[in-house]
Amino acid sequence: MVATQETVERIAEATGRYKYGFITDIDSDKAPKGLNEDIVRFISAKKDEPDWLLEWRLKAYRHWLTMREPSWAKLGYPPIDYQDAYYYAAPKSPEDAPKSLDEVDPELLRTYEKLGIPLREQEMLAGVAVDAVFDSVSVATTYKKKLEDMGVIFCPISEAVQRYPELVQRYLGSVVPYSDNFFATLNSAVFTDGSFVYVPKGLRCPMELSTYFRINERNTGQFERTLIIADEGSYVSYLEGCTAPQRDENQLHAAVVELVTMDDAEIKYSTVQNWYPGDENGKGGIYNFVTKRGACRGRDSKIMWTQVETGSAITWKYPSCILQGDNSVGEFYSVAITNNAQQADTGTKMIHIGKNTRSRVISKGIAAGRADQTYRGLVRMMPKAEGARNYTQCDSLLIGDRCGAHTVPYIETRNPTAQVEHEATTSRISDDQLFYCLQRGIPQEDAVTLIVNGFCKEVLQTLPMEFAVEAQKLVGVSLEGSVG
Amino acid sequence: MTETLDLIPLAPDEVTLGVNEPAWLADLRRAGLSVYRGQGLPTVRVEAWKYTSLAGLRKIDHVRDDGTLGLSDWGGRGALDLPDAHTVTLVNGRPVGVPDALPVGVRVASLAHLLETEPDLLTPYLGRGADLSDTPMGALNAALMADGLVVLVAPGVALDRPLHMISVTEAPDHARHIHPRHLVVLGAGADATLVESRVTAPGAAPTLTNMVTDMVVGERARLRHLSLANGGAEAVDLGLTTVTVGAEAAYDAFTLTLGGRLVRHEGCVRLAGAGAETRLRGAYGVREAQHVDTTLRVDHAVADTTSDQVFKGVVDAGGRGVFQGKTLVRRDAQRSDGGQLHKALVLSRDAEVYTKPELEIYADDVKCGHGATVGELDADQLFYLMARGITEADARALLVEAFLDDVVEAVPEGALRDAFLDAVRAWQARRHAVTWQA
Asked: Which Pfam family, an example, fits this chain (chain B) (predicted)?
C-alpha cells in the first residue's frame, strides 16, 4: 500500500521532526527556540563538524527522545520545558558588553571584593569588553604557545574536532556514552563547546590548566563538553570554574566531563561552582545537571576530583571513577554548601574493576536556611577487584532548624578480599566552639565561617593554593545571612 | 487452575474471607487490594527492592493456603529450644491452641477468632501501623490476611516468662502462599518478651510467607522482640513489622536469620512519644543461593527520641546479604539520637553484600551517624589461632562467633541467649560439614 501525501504530511506534523526542512540559515546568530533534529544539524553545521560527529549527535538526540527525565534525586523543581529553550546562540559581540566596571551590578562587585579578586580579573569575570582585559588575552596566548611547544593540546573541543579529529573520535563518548543518562544524552546531542586536553606520554604538565585562560571562548553556554586525556606517565591538574559568582541567562545547564588516564598517568580535576543560586526563594537560579566521569584505564593511574559547590538553585552531580587498571586510584573530595532555598543532590561513584584498586571519598555537606542537601554515593566492588579498598566519610553540618541533610550511600561488594569502610555523621555547629569564638570577640558570622572552614579543611586542602584561599572566603560569603 | 501471584485475588468480593466482617476491615482489604493491583509484585526497579528480586516467585505456581492443615509431625527442628517459655505454635499462620497459665491481664488469641467474636477490640490497631501505599506486599497481606496471633497485655502488667511463638509453614502437596497477620499491643507501663521461631516442616513444597506484624508499645511500656528465621531451603519469608513506640517506652529487637531461600525482614519503627527509644540488633548467616535482606526504617517523629541499629552478617559461598537502614529525623524532632552500624564478613568467593544505610535529617540539634564495613576475616587473627594449634575450620568458626558476639549479646542472658547461640553454632556446624565434604 502506498501512503498518500496526506498521511505523510500528517505524520510529519505529528512528529515535528522535519518541520523546518533540512536547511537552516547557518549565518543567523540564534537557532530558533526548541529542539529537533534540525537544531542538532544546525549546531553541527555551525561548527563545521565532520559527518561522524553529526551522526553521533543525531543518534544521541534520537535516543534522548525515548528517555524520561530521572526523578530519583531528592530534588524538587517545576517541570522543565525542553522545547522552550534556545540550544544555540552565537557568543555575544563586544558591543553588548559593559564598557567598564561602572556599568556592572554593584552587588556583584561587592562580592568580588569580599573574595579578594584582583581588579583585572573582576573585569574579566563581569564580562567587560575585550580591550579592557587585553593583557589577560596576551598572557593566555603566551601560555598556550608554551604548552603547545611541549606537546600539550589545550584548546576548545570544537577546535580539537578540526585539528585532532582522530583523538576526539577515539575518546569522545568512551567514558560517558551518548546513551548514558537523560542529561548526558541531551548534552551529546547539543553540546556547543568545552575544553579538550591531551597530555602526551611522560609529560608532567608544568602549570595548572585553568578556564581562566580561555577567555576567548568563555561563552561556552549551557551544554559544555570537556574531554581530558592523560597518556602514559603524564600528569595534569585542571581547574574549572571560579569562585566569583557567575551569572548566566540560561537556566538549564547540562555539562559532561570525560577523563581518561593511561598507565601511570594522573589527572587532578578541581571545580569551584558558584553559578547564580537564585533569590532567597530560589527563583531564577541555575539548574545544574552535570555528568562527570573518569576512567582509570591504565595500571597505577589516578583520578582525583575535588569540588566546591556553592552555587546553583539545583545541583545534580556525581563525579565518578571507573577503576579499570590494576592498582589504580580514585579520589573524591567535596564541599557542598546550600543556603536559602538551594537544593543539592551530589556525591560520587567508585567502580572497582581492577585488582588492588583504591578509592577514597570525603564529602562535607553544609545546609543552611531552608536548603536541602543529599550525599548520594555508590561504591561497587566487582568480582575481579582483588584486594580493592574503599574508605568513605561523609559528614553533614546543619545550620538552622529549617534545612535538611541526607545521606544515601550504596555499597555493593562482590569480592571477599575487597574492603569497604563507610562512615557518616550529621551534626550542627557545637555551642562550645561557637561560645569559645564569641568569647574571644570574634563576631558570630565570622565564627561560623571559621568553624565551617575547619569542618571542610580536609577537602579545601586538596585544592591548588590560590583556589584554596578564595574557596575559604567563598565559604563565608555563601553562608551570609544564615545565622543570627 | 492455579492462580499466579500477579493475578490474585480475582475479584474484590473474593478478598473478604470472614462471613460477618466489620466494614472497617472490608475497607482495609479493599484499600490493600487496590494498592497491590496498582503496583503488583515489587521488582528491582522499585528503589526499596533494588537488591531483592522476587522474579523467582513468578516461576512457581502457588496456591493460597486454605487454613485446613493440621500440625504435622515436624519434630521441632530448627526452632529455638525454650522449655520454660509460654509456647504457642502456628501452622501456616494459624494458632494451634493457645497457651494456658498466662498471668491475669495477658491475652493471647487467634486473630480469626477475635475478628469473629470481638472485632471492636482490634479496630484501633489493625492496619494502623503502616502506610499501605509504599508497601505492596503489606497491602497484599491486608487484602488476604486470614489469621495470626493477637497478644494483648493490659496496662501495668508484666508477662512473667517469654512468649514463644513457633510459626511452622507446611505445604505437603503444592506450593502455597500464606499471609499471617499478628498484632501485639502493650498497654501503658506493661512489660513483655516475645520470641519467634520461624521454621518449615520437612519435605514442604516451596512456600511464600508474607507476614505482617503490627506492634503498639504504650507509654513507659517495654517490649523485647527476639526472632529466629530458620526456614527451609525452598522457603520465601517476607515479613513486615510496624512498631509504634509511645513516650518513655522502649522497643528492643533482635533478629537472627539463618535459614530460608529468600528472607526479607522489613522493620518500621516509629518513635511517637518523647523519650521513646529503640534498639534494633540483628545477625544473619547466608550461604548457597540464600538471600537475606534486612530493611529498616526508624522514624524519629518527635523530639527527644533515641534509636540504635547494629546488624552483622556473615556471607558464605553463593549467599547474598542486603542491609538497607534508614534513619529519618522529622522537622522539629530536636535532640534525636540515631546510630546505625552494619558490618558484613565475607567468607568466600561468589558471596555478595549490598549495603545502603540512609540518613534523612530535617532537624539540626541531632546526633546521627552511620557506619558500614565489608571485608573478609582478618588474616592475622586466623594466623594467631592456627599458630596455637587450632585447626583452620575451628579458628574460622571461632572468629565468626566472635564477630557476631556483640549483637547476640543484646539477647538477655540465660536460656534465651543460649538458645540463640546454639542456633548460630548449628549453622556453623553445617558449614563444617560442607567444607569437609568438599
From this structure: SUFBD_core
